Each structure stands twice: as C-alpha cells, then as structure tokens.
Amino acid sequence: MHIEVIATICEARSDEFLHKTVIVVDVLRATSTIITALMNGCKGVVPVETVIKAKELAREGDLLGGERYCKKIPGFDFGNSPLEYSREAVQGKRVILTTTNGTRGIQKATKADRVLAGALINAKAVAEAAIDLKRDTVIVCAGTQDVFSLEDGICAGLILDEIAAILGESQMMTNDFGLAMRGSYLEAKDRLLATLLACTNGKKMKKSGFLADVELCAKVNTTDCVPVLEHDQMVLYQR
Amino acid sequence: MHIEVIATICEARSDEFLHKTVIVVDVLRATSTIITALMNGCKGVVPVETVIKAKELAREGDLLGGERYCKKIPGFDFGNSPLEYSREAVQGKRVILTTTNGTRGIQKATKADRVLAGALINAKAVAEAAIDLKRDTVIVCAGTQDVFSLEDGICAGLILDEIAAILGESQMMTNDFGLAMRGSYLEAKDRLLATLLACTNGKKMKKSGFLADVELCAKVNTTDCVPVLEHDQMVLYQR
C-alpha cells in the first residue's frame, strides 16, 4: 500500500487525489472536533470554507460551529473546541462547521475517491479504514495558514506506523516526507502531550486557555470513529 | 538563536534571507561534494545554475564539475561524486560546479548576509560557524526537483541538535518543521547509513552504482571544513 504524506494544504494539488483515499489531518483542532461530534451522535458535519456559506447552508435545527484564528465566530453556537461538541449538545443534530485550515483541507480533497478525517484520537481506526478502502492513500497535514504544523505531521507518522503494524513493514510504502514524519512520531511517542505543547499551535492554544483541548487531542486511539465525506457532509464510516 | 528550517528550495523566498545566515544542505551530494573539494585544497567552488554558464565561466586551469539527474555532464572533468574531488585532482584549482538542486539552492540564497554549505560530514562545524555569525539562521533543505528529501531533513535536524548542544536547549528556537526534523534525526541517528539507503535518493544512488558516495555522505562530523560564499564562489570559512 502506498501512502504519500503532504506537509500543508497549499502543497496539495487536487488533481493528484483522483481515485485515491485522502486522510485530512488537523489535530488542533478541526478533525479532532469532527471526530468528537460524530462520536457523540451528531448526524453529520458539513465542512464549509466561509462564514457566509455556513450561514446560508444552516437550516432549522442545525448548529453552527467554527473559528477564525482560534476564536468562536460571533452568532455561532460553538467554537472549534471538541469539548463543546458533547452528546447533550449534538446528538441527532447536523453541524455546519467552518475553520481556518481543516475544513479547507476537506474541501480541497473532494476530487478523491473517499475523504476521511484523521487525528491522534482515531489514528488506528482511520488506518484500518484506509486499508479497507484498498486505494493509494494521501495524508494531507492541514497545517496553519499554509505553514507546516508539527502535531499534524506527528499524527501522519502515527497513522503510517499503525498501517505498518497491520500490513507489515514491507507493505507500507511512503514518500521521504512520510518517512520523516514517522521518525518524528516515533521519537515523540512517549511524550506526545509535551510535544504538542511545545509546538506553535499548542503554545498558542495553551495561552488562549485551551489546555484541556490540547490534552484531549493528544490522546491516542481513544475512539474507533472515522468520519467520511458523503456528498457534502462528514458522517460515520461504516465497513 | 532562531533557526528556521525550510523543506525545499522552491519554498524558500529569497527576500526572507535578508540579514540572515543561510545554510544550504544537499547531502546527496552537492554540499557534501563542495565540502570535500575545499577540504582537499581546492581554491574555490563556483556554483552555477546551468551547463552553459559553467562553460562560459571556466578559465584556463579551472575544472568543470557537475551532474544532471545523477549523471556526469559530457565534456566535464568530474561528475558530482565527492570521491572524485581528491587532493590530487583539485588542490590549488578552482572548480565550476553545476548540479540539479544544491547549486540552485546556493544561487537562491545570495541575498543572505552569509551563505554556508552544510552536510552530515560537517554538521558540527557548520553549527559552530552559524553561532559564530550571530544572525538569525535559515537551513534550506535542497530537496530533489522541488520535493523534500529525507537525508537533507535529517541533516537539518542534526545541525539543530549540535546548536542545542552548544548553546543549551532554551537558546535553540526553531519552527515546527525544524522540530520535526530534529525528531526525525534523533530517531535515525544510530542507523544513518541504513536510513539514507532507504530514502528515495539513497535507493537511486545505490542502484546507479554510487553506494560508496552514500557511505561517505552518511558519516557525521568527519571534517571541520565549512564552505562560505564569497562573491561568486564557495571558499573555506575562517573565524
């Protein structure tokens, strides 16, 4: 199985996704939030690029979620903290979500055969889903404003590691960037929270009062839930 | 000291190099070759972008070196193997060098305050020189045809590690990509040759009969020689 890892959304060329499985990774926090919402019974998360589009799409009973530069958008029900997307808040509801990077990554990947959402919390499950789909796979690290983010790279490395553990080393082929990310993950695996708190986004989130979010997002394989894009919304992937 | 690591030449914006020290890294093989040539008494290495420019610049007594896609250029004295640049071959001579990636990286960095050449073989020495120059520093991984190359990333990680060892951890600040490269280096440090042979360029070079080059380029801190760009040529950096 061939898995290419891409450092940022802006490096991703959407034509290269044709006939492939794309895993979008935005650990802090968009994909961690989408996974958490679906895990808590949300019907579907609709990722959109702009605030205006989010408001246009919202129908009676929908929830609006999202952030710009880590801050909740005025008039929205939620920000982009996974802790807000509790069962009480989202069960049976649809969420329209717009974030600075992660939802853009999903939008850019729509030419892919299937688009999955990955994070540290569902790394093994998303690895299994990608194997199950039997396609060449691209892991897109969302990054931040077109700059590489360490937490996304480490998550890509973990997903590669999970795939290699399932298929065997010789069956997991990746590009040089993927090899580097896997090395970076292996070096950091015993102190992931500290590593996330030392990188640009982690420092920023801690400073903005979101330490609990970083703690949640730094946990590995806490859920089997894998979001997959069906038409315009992320829903639970079913084998 | 702030050290930014950039994944490929095409990501480097030359205006961002103003007033900074730039370390260009092309482990396989341009910077390893330039270091080896100067170590062996070569007067200076002139990096140029094109074959035509190399031929135009060559004066009586100069040597022409370079490659395109790993192969020696017809009519040139040498290819891009550091093993060719022996003391017998280069002492007292000037070399005009053109390679696919590394010399392009040096050309792109000319707006910097100083341009140094780094590789695994001189990592500690180039770290010391960068500290000595007391500027914000950018490590440019040359990559291959605008794609990230693992060996350059690992070398960047080693240079960061050397700087942290000299200045102390709290005095070495880097970007998320730098943190990832340092992790990747630390994970691979006890089997660097195997790691280089597992990445795209290493595999290609072994297949093309250049295993001895990879072996030479995978050795760490075998020389104190640091090339620095003076006007149009790389010469030995003197403190």
TrEMBL record, chains A, B:
This entry's Enzyme Commission designation comes to: 3.1.3.71
Q: Which cofactor does it need?
A: Mg(2+)
Question: What superkingdom heads the lineage?
Answer: Bacteria
Query: Which InterPro entries does the record associate with it?
Result: ComB-like (IPR005238), ComB-like_sf (IPR036702)
Record carries keyword Hydrolase: yes
Q: Which UniProt keywords apply?
A: Hydrolase, Magnesium
Any one GO molecular-function label of the UniProt entry: 2-phosphosulfolactate phosphatase activity
Pfam hit, one: 2-ph_phosp
Q: Which reaction does it catalyse?
A: (2R)-O-phospho-3-sulfolactate + H2O = (2R)-3-sulfolactate + phosphate
In terms of Gene3D superfamilies, this protein maps to: ComB-like (3.90.1560.10)
* Family affiliation: Belongs to the ComB family.
Q: What is this protein called?
A: Probable 2-phosphosulfolactate phosphatase
Question: What's the encoding gene here?
Answer: comB
